[in-house]
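Continuing from the previous page of notes. For each protein in this section, the sequence appears first, followed by its structure tokens. Read the first protein now.
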Amino acid sequence: MVEFCKSKGIVVTAYSPLGSPQRPWVKETDPSVMDDPIVVEIANRYKKSPAQVLIRFAVERGIVVIPKSVTPSRIQANFESMNFELKPEDVRLLLNLNKNYRGCALEWIFDHKDHPFAVTS
């Protein structure tokens, strides 16, 4: 989808780029991207947090990232994701993490004609 949007001049924005682990409807069985062993391993290699790695990953893909935070130390840490680059092999590892999961799929409006993930027959 990202490449298609880029080919059409559409800017993609990451909504909940860190997985919104505190969202009210989270289930215990939902995947946690910041706890994913591959994300944690990459973060440890760079001496960064998983959040910094995920923000950097999106930025390097040309995606606008707006992580939510009200905590000054986390806001500062988010900015520090701009002071390193991921190696191509780490980008490939992160690209392969797709779990075909949407944490904010807007189920409560699924029947709306303009729902972004609606399936048409």
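Done with the first. The second protein uses the same format. Note its length before scrolling.
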Amino acid sequence: MLQDSAARRQRGLQAADNMRSQYLLNTRRDVQQGHRLITLPNAAHLTYGANDDPRLLALIEKVPSELWGAKLALQLIAQRLQGGESQFASYVAELPKGFPGIPVFFPRTALDMIDYPPCSQQVKKRCKWLYEFSTEVLARLPGSPEDPFGGVAVDINALGWAMAAVSSRAFRTRGPTQPAAMLPLIDMANHTFSPNAEVLPLEGGGGAVGLFARRAITEGEPLLLSYGQLSNDFLFMDYGFIVEDNPYDSVQLRFDVNLLQAGALVANVSDALGAPLDLAPRTWQLQLLAELGLVGPAANTELNIGGGGPGAELLDGRLLAAARIMVARADGEVSGRGVERLCAVDRPLGRDNELAALRTVGGVLAFALSNFATTLDQDKTLLAGQPVAVPQAGGVGERELPPLASEDEALAVRFRLEKKKILSRALQRVGALSQAAAGNSELRQTAGSAAAKKGSKPAPATGKGFGSKKR
């Protein structure tokens, strides 16, 4: 039976309720850097492997590899159904009955408030898989030779609970290609990008791990781990929280020439004759875009604004490179520079080219911001408990958004607010780069624009300009 003696705690730890059906792990006395706080033997890791029921392992194999949490969730269900016979009975009994903040379980109103396609699409994908696996696989197990659950019907609610428990608590201590594990007691430590503790394998421990102090920790201080350099998308989807001003968070865009054209229109970028800039690509431009990996059969069209970590460049170099290529009047302005040079954000090719490219990129960012149903300031008003008025669909009249009615709605608004802050900071970066380019007397003059077709209108950008979330 897994109890405190199995997940051995060095004296000086205590669990405390954090008021959200979860627990925190605190120290009861001062500890020094390097002190081992918890020892967890390999046998106390809730995971799966070759020694498990072959029927359970066969069921786990039916889960796509990217849904690693669902694989471990099936083992958690099996342990839960064993009741007191499971060595993990006391641990499973202490798991929360619900997991607030996990988007898969949001009501429709909260889901709609996410308003960020890469995340919304991922929620729909997970919900679709959860429903199909529950109805087409699990529902057919009771009474069959393949049933690892002893005839008990496992429905979508049980699988959803187990997936939420696993995604919010599991560790990949054995590497990304090996099964994840739930680590009792250790998994009560919360996340921070400045952790005071860490999980390390024990030498000669046969798979055992320990929780160690990364620095001196004072009495009563919560033990905090880093779950990794994770974006808010990952933290939101799997853990049910976000980090404000997360340096690893980003806004995903999907490259399309039409997206650049929309940006040029928004920013009023014009050609040498003063007409709206027409970005219909020519052969040499398509060749350069292919070198960037933005067009062609093997293209990777996902762009990221932000997400590089503290102090990293906000702008995606490939986005700026694409803009430099598309606003160029002739291939001599951009050809022969190489991908690295084209993508160098702080190294303009020429004054006019750079100013037109930056204005186009700024227009793309403004276009992305405009695709949210609310503004940054309106989100702040909603989080302050006040209603806001937004335009009706079609732009005729206004409708009132009532004050937020739940923690789930508030979390969804906080999530999208962080995306808008990233785009706003990126716009400020574009402004600073534009000012620097305009004032740089050493930059050679270039036309920086393509021939225009007067009265031309770009095709609408697809997917609201946002990319698709990849897991």
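What the second structure shows: The radius of gyration is 26 Å. Residues 1-11, 17-21, 447-463 have pLDDT under 50 and may be disordered. We return to this in next week's lecture.
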